[in-house]
Amino acid sequence: MDARERDRSSEGLLDELRAELGTQAVLTGNDIPLRNRNDWSSKPPGEPLAVLRPGNAQEAARAVAACRAARLPFVPQGGLTGLCGGATPEPGWIAISLERMVGIEEIDPVSATMTVKAGTPLEVVQRAADEAGFLFPLDLGSRGSCAIGGNLSTNAGGNRVIRYGMTRDLVLGLEVVLPDGTVLTNLNKLLKNNAGYDLKHLFIGSEGTLGIITRVVLRLFPRPRSTAAALCALSSYADVAALLAGARSGLGPILSAFEVMWPDYWQVVTERLKVRSPVASGHGFYVLVETHGSDEATDAARFQSWLEEMAESGILADAAVAQSHAQVKDFWAVRDACAEFGTGLGPHISYDIGLQVDRMDSFASRCKAALEAGIPGCDSVYYGHIGDGNLHLVAWVAGLPMEQQPKEAMDAIIYGLVREMGGSISAEHGIGTTKKKWLGHARSDAEIALMRVLKGALDPENLLNPGKVVSL
């Protein structure tokens, strides 16, 4: 098929889809919003042939079938807040956006489940759960923009993994459109269901390469009756590790977050971003500890007693305890200030890695030194969830625009050290295209080969988000 025949075929496809799905569901040319051309990664924006906006799984299936008939690659899109290029279209692709698949279908208070459409923003899910007297514990800085389907697609982590687990642990059932257009519906509400393979786990974390998630059954948890938080200052990483061990044993199941900030992060947040801190600067580490409990009086006393025990043992250099929910939010503002790094640092590259907890400070020290030595003018800051083995860092060369930031050199240094220290190149943001080159640093040849087998089995024509994560 030459270029003119391909163009005629594509236009015929779009006319067919307009007739079938409605003109509001098919955007082309100048009508394609800028947001549908890229996610939040540093990858250059793509130029999709069209953006399709189906309203339900059956319309998504028809869109998939039409793309297959025309041999056009297609990429699913949610909130487009990913950082690895997983939702970015290549020129000539079709983008299938779930932005019209929004809404809470059901909250079942007896089963403690919520059935929700995949394009629904995470914050909407959180609010609906709260209004029904429950908690949906997944929480990310992009909560107002990211879509729940995208959260599943990347197996998002967030701030409360230490207690509630990754997104994978919060899902009971799925509806998925397969690469051949089949709608696979298993909106299971059962926590225990061992009837054959648990197929939902094929799609959670597969970054839209094995299927398009359209509806989800989520687990809900009792809404906490008490929340306590403290922002702690410590002298050394050994004290951080001791505080984590003490929190796990002393606070037990009410421990909901354990966020660690290195002093370079603290300096940027308090000095450049001017975020007000409840504890003084000049310490070796800063830790935000949060609990969710069921009895305010008992939990508050338990939290205070635990803090006093940590202080008496010499682990704490200083600590501030939140006296209200407003102060809890203020404490979190220090940790969430990383979302404003574009203002405080200018262009920068974000990294998301997994490491054993006892190796994190060694990694941070070695990585910072290696970046400074290997890339003139390169600086970096470190922070993370720690309790679940997730370290974040951002690196940059001041004064350079984003397109001139030496990302390849940064990647080589950072991911090389990750491999040396037995970590993962991605703790919660996925692989997409930006990390694909480095997948072998965290997965064996046999594992990558099996990923290709799965991709080939479900998408033999290689049309659904091809080239992301692994290549056939």
Q: Care to describe what's here?
A:
This is Oxidoreductase. GO terms for molecular function: FAD binding; oxidoreductase activity. Belongs to the FAD-binding oxidoreductase/transferase type 4 family. The chain is of the alpha+beta class. It has four domains: 3-97, Uridine Diphospho-n-acetylenolpyruvylglucosamine Reductase, domain 2 (2-Layer Sandwich); 104-222, Uridine Diphospho-n-acetylenolpyruvylglucosamine Reductase, domain 3 (2-Layer Sandwich), CATH 3.30.465; 226-339, Alpha-Beta Plaits; 345-446, Alpha-Beta Plaits, CATH 3.30.70. It is built from 14 helices and 18 strands. It has helices spanning 3-21, 57-69, 122-131, 148-153, 161-164, 200-203, 237-250, 263-272, 296-312, 325-336, 341-344, 360-374, 407-420, 445-458, and strands at residues 26-28, 50-52, 74-77, 94-97, 104-108, 113-117, 134-135, 171-177, 183-186, 212-219, 221-222, 226-234, 255-261, 285-293, 318-321, 349-354, 378-384, 390-397. Strands 15-12-14-13-17-18-16 form a seven-stranded antiparallel sheet, with helices on both faces. A hairpin with a 4-residue loop joins β5 (104-108) and β6. α12 (360-374) runs antiparallel to α13 (407-420). The two termini are 23 Å apart.
